[in-house]
Amino acid sequence: MSAMIPYGRQDISEADIQAVVDVLRSDYLTQGPAVPAFEKSIADYCGVPHAVAMNSATSALHVACLALGVGEGDMVWTTPITFVASANCALYCGADIDFVDIDPKTYNMSVERLSDKLAYAKRHGKLPKVVIPVHLCGQPCDMVAIHALGQQYGFKIIEDASHAIGGKYRNEPIGNCHYSDITIFSFHPVKIITTAEGGMAMTKNAQLAKSMQLLRSHGITRDVNEMTHVPDGPWYYQQIDLGYNYRMTDLQAALGLSQMQRLDEFVSKRHVIAKRYDQLLDGLNVSAPWQHPDGYSGLHLYVVRLKLEQIGKTHRQVFEALREAGIGVNLHYIPVHLQPYYEGLGFEVGHCPEGEQYYAEAISLPMYPNLTVAEQDRVIKILRVATSK
Ligand SMILES: *Cc1c(COP(=O)(O)O)cnc(C)c1O
């Protein structure tokens, strides 16, 4: 039997390897020139003035919340269908979290539910300080509508674009922050480009960028203009805030910078694979993902939903049949509010019915740039058997 086809996989070239080796032979393994070069490369790509690299998207989400002033007594809202980090970042800051149910068509945060929830929260004096929409699978959220609600109700916006680098919204790059305060990317190996571990926060706001730069490195500044008094000497630095060590290394940044050269190629390959899935899934007992015409998805994931009443098997039986046949399917995601930790905070089944229904039917098929036609055919062949009555 052939090896398991994973749901996602990095693509590392000889040039990527050489870029990392070059850093290993240089003077700086961290805090050298590769980090600002990588930041500039992504900032230019997105058409945004500021980019702050960090050791993960999780760190970037944390620091983004802090920079926007999230703290005790504040409320942050996100979607239940996301990785736990999109919600955990609010709790790190001592804030409270709540979840806005998903749109049954895009699986992203529903603007209708958001609008209703805001009207209710306003009447009860419990408006969120920050809303974190997540571009699930790479498909951009309805940012124009979310931004308009932000203006109306006075909340800030962090786009969790961990799945979406290389994608577009209304023909402009995701990450340009036209409809948000900060946008976050992840460079975990399963994502679109990788630095092994890594993340980045994009912003148009120089003050927010400064604040995030400070927070990623202990709250320490070497900028005389930020100090409370003139330096004691050339060795001097000041800690002016309580920050963290969330820095990206130069090894990681060099890998990311090298990967950036193939970003567009990666995303267009994902689109070719998705288009072929769309065609091959026709006639199977699954729903292919719907793509909103306003977006060009990064296509981090290709999620199908099982038509269970036509299949006559359980979600789990189909999933296990695929895994047993060597297809490394996955499930993105378990609704965050149903994680035991979040249940411990008082969340219950029924809080986000659309998200819960999605969880009962979703399966992520293998999707990565080097997935071959033969592998894709094998996925479809096995899926056809697994989903037939
Ligand atoms: C992967 C991911 C994260 C966390 O990214 P890391 O770089 O692994 O910290 C956050 N949000 C979403 C939606 C993700 O998919």
Task: Give a structural overview.
By secondary structure, the chain is α/β, with parallel strands linked by helices. It folds into two domains: 256 residues, Type I PLP-dependent aspartate aminotransferase-like (Major domain) (Aspartate Aminotransferase, domain 2, 3-Layer(aba) Sandwich); 124 residues, Aspartate Aminotransferase, domain 1 (Alpha-Beta Complex), CATH 3.90.1150.10. The protein has 14 helices and 15 strands. The strands form four sheets. The protein has a seven-stranded mixed β-sheet, with helices on both faces. Strand 4, helix 6 and strand 5 form a beta-alpha-beta unit. Helix 2 runs parallel beside helix 8, helix 3 packs across helix 4 and helix 11 crosses helix 14. The radius of gyration is 22 Å and the shape is globular. The chain starts with 13 loop residues before the first helix and ends with a helix. The model has no long low-confidence stretch (mean pLDDT 97). The protein binds pyridoxal-5'-phosphate. The site of pyridoxal-5'-phosphate has 14 residues, from helix 3 and helix 4.
Total beta strands? 15
Overall spatial form: globular
What name does CATH use for the topology of the largest domain? Aspartate Aminotransferase, domain 2
Element pattern in H and E = HHEHEHEHEHEEEEEHEEHHEEEHHHHEH
Sequence stretches where pLDDT stays below 50 over 5 or more residues: none
Q: Gyration radius, to the nearest Å?
A: 22 Å
Beta percentage is 5-15%
The structure class reads: alpha/beta
Tally the helices: what do you get? 14
The count of domains is: 2
